[in-house]
Every structure is written in structure tokens, then in C-alpha cells.
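Dear colleagues,

As part of the handover before I leave the project, I'm documenting each prediction I ran so the next person doesn't have to rerun anything. This entry is a single chain, and its sequence is reproduced below.
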Amino acid sequence: MIFGGGGVQLRGIGCAGAGALTIQSMALDSSGNLYLTGLTQSPDFPATEGALQGFPNHDQCVSTVASHLHPDAGRCETERRRAVVYSIFVGGREATQASHHQYAGGIAVDADGNAYVPGVTATPDFPVTSGAFMEEAPEGQTSAFVAKLNRAGSELNGASALGTSAALAVDAEGNAVVLGNAAAGFPVTSGAAQPCMAGGGSDLFVARVSPAGRLEEATYLGGSSFDWPFAVAANEDRAVHVAGATAHANFVATLRLAESGRSAGPCLSMLVQNAASFAEIPVAAGEIVSLRGEGIGPESPVSGSGATELGDVRVFFDGMAAPLLYAQSQQINAIVPWKLAGRETADARVEYAGASSIVGSVPVAPSAPGIFQIDYDRRQAAVVNADGTLYSPETPAEPGSIIAVFGTGGGPMEPGGVTGGVWPLSPLARLVLPVTVEIGGVEAEVPESPEPSPAGHDLEVKIGAATAAPATVSIR
């Protein structure tokens, strides 16, 4: 049997079967044994005798396979066959169409040689074990799973349905720590780090599942847009490290999934947005940000001008009350306190009607620029000329004219900002970090004779080491 890694496909080679084989993931145990998961369309993929499952889910569909090989495993000559401890299919059999494909998302091995395989399935007969917290995948829906195979590959010691996709690690107690995507209704546990879905139709979930398939603890993790799971790792002290991405940035988070005594108050998302660009984390001192969640403010929106309490809502960064501009049950707009400048992280929480949300740690950067836009579909920047005229494709800027671009997250100012205060009219405040502006790919000044562009030229603003999400400005 020949295996390849990193998405390598093998077709018609050795004893891998007649169809294509794609290796998805691999792991090593302490003895150097190699464990592999992958995908095959080969109905004759050579499952080993006595394996838990020796059949594919359907000869027209992609099936998940798992294999355990001794260190001397190599090509498929007869004398090497003893090196394959087991080679099996993982999943149900009642797939009748391509939409019932099953995919493995990774593999991990514990100290006893048990293999944990996460993945995705839509087969109605996926073999979930008795006592699992989710004994049936939702009918007609794709569901994630996590399966535990014994050292010989002959028994399924625990298997449960989960959300919609997964990455996996094994903690020191033999629990599977699973990262994936879940929609509303995912069964978070008491004291969850983020008990509600923040938005975007799907958030990440992180769950700890016992060796028998029981849900030990679970939480949502995400922001207002769609989130993607990359990787997860577990510490001996039950802390979990998660790597993922939002629509605007990659992130790494460390959290405890659930803790007894955690407040069941307002549900705050673990990610904070730039109020101009909607980019999620990091934040900068003085930046206008949007916090998302459920029950974090009144049902009817309330607008403000910088007081630290608005509609019975207060927001704290490292214990410092933030000036508030808008409060509603699913969104709060606040100004990050200027005293956070120079810090690397800050603890953020919301109080509403006297109840406190969980505390989430957010990264702090010297700058996190975002450009306000008047038309987000066309990415049209909020730009005015010296007399206050608002520019648009119908009223473009003149070449050589002076324009003002409105944004937030520029970082430290001179004179310095005062939380809750306003700058004097003289002298005007200026950004301390270096600023670079490009329009249509040309560094500002505004190009002397750009080509007409009704859709607008790309406007790029860089402050310090951070670049704002792109917007456009119309030039005549």
C-alpha cells in the first residue's frame, strides 16, 4: 500500500484500490506507528481482515478510510503486508448519491494507541455509539462526527455526531477536543465561554467529548461573520488553543471551554469589530468598535455621544469604562479607552441591567485602521472635499484636489487622546504613526491625470504596520 500526504492523490497504484486515494491527515504514536486518514472512491480498497468496517459507503461516492501502519510499512509486496495493522472504511453504508460523501478532517492518537478521527458525513446510518450525546445526525443535513477506534481497528469505542466540520486534538485525559462550525442550537454547556452564536449564519464551536462519546463541555467561538476552523490543541490544565479565520483576519485564541460559576448574563461574542470596516480584532486605543452578541443591550436602539453608560449598558476594557455611541440587544458601538495604548491584550466585558457578560481577551495593536464607507456594496469610502462636499461616482473628486478620508483605529495622536474627552480646535490632533495613502495604486498625492473610473479607484490607507480594508474613491 502506498500513501501520500498533503492532499497527494494516488490512482491505481499498489494495493490502494482502483480509484483515487487522497491522504487528509496523519499522526505518529510514541512507538513510531503511523496513522492515516484519507478519502477514496475505490470500492476495492483493501480493508484488513477483522476490521470494524470493510465496505465503502457507496461505490459511486467518496468514502473515508483510516489505516494504522508499523514503522516498517512500505510498498505492497507480500512480505510487507504484516506491517499494516488495520485498514478500514469509516462511516455509514446507506449513501446513494454524491451528496452523501464522507470526509475525514484529521486524526489523533492517545497514549494507548486509540485513534480519534473527526470528519463530516451525511449518511443516515453513521454508526454512532450508545450513550453518545448526539446519537443521530440531523436528518437530511451534513453533520460532523468524531470516532474513536481501538488499537486493532476492530471496535468503535466511541462515536458521536457534532456540528458541521471539525479539527481535533486529544487531551491528557483521553478526551477528544473538537473544533468545527455550528449553527444556532448547538448544545453548549453550562458556564460556556461564549454561550450564544454571534452571527453570520455559523460560528465555530469547541467541544470536549469523553472517550465514550459524551459531551463534557462545549462553547461557541466566533464573531458576526462566517468563521473557519484551522487547528486546535489542548493543554494539560484543560486550556484549549484554537486557530481559525474570520472574513477579515486569521486569529489564535486561548480559552477554557466552560467554568462553573460563570455568569449567565449578556452573551458577548469573543471577537470585536472595527466599526468602519467590520474587520475583527485586534483593537487599537481610541478606535470605534462594534461589540456583538445576544441580550447585550435594550431591544430598542439607543444612541449616545460618549457617556460611559447608555440604555443601562456599560462596556469595560481592562476595567476601564468605554465611551458609548450606540446600544442595542445585538450590537454596541464603543470607543476603546486611550489608556490601552502600549498593551498587548485587554479583557473586555459588557454589563447590561446590572448583569455582566463573560470576560473575553482581545488583542491590542498600535493601530487597526478602518475606512468608513457610505456604500458598502460598492466599497465607496466616506470622502469629502475641503468645503464639505460628499464625493460619489456622480460627484467625483477633481485631480489635484484635497480630500478628507474618514476612518478610525489610527492609533496614538498628538496631542494625546483623553478617554471621554474631546480635542481642542487648536492645535489640531495628528496621527503619530506614519501614514501612507494610495489611490488607484499611486501613492498620494492624488494622481494628476487618472483614468476615469465610475466604480472608483482603490483607496488604501496604511497607518504604522497595519493596513485598512480596501475601499474606493471616485476621481473625475
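The CA atoms of residues 321 and 467 lie 28 Å apart. The domain at 267-363 is CATH 2.60.40.10 (Immunoglobulin-like).

All the best with the project,
I.
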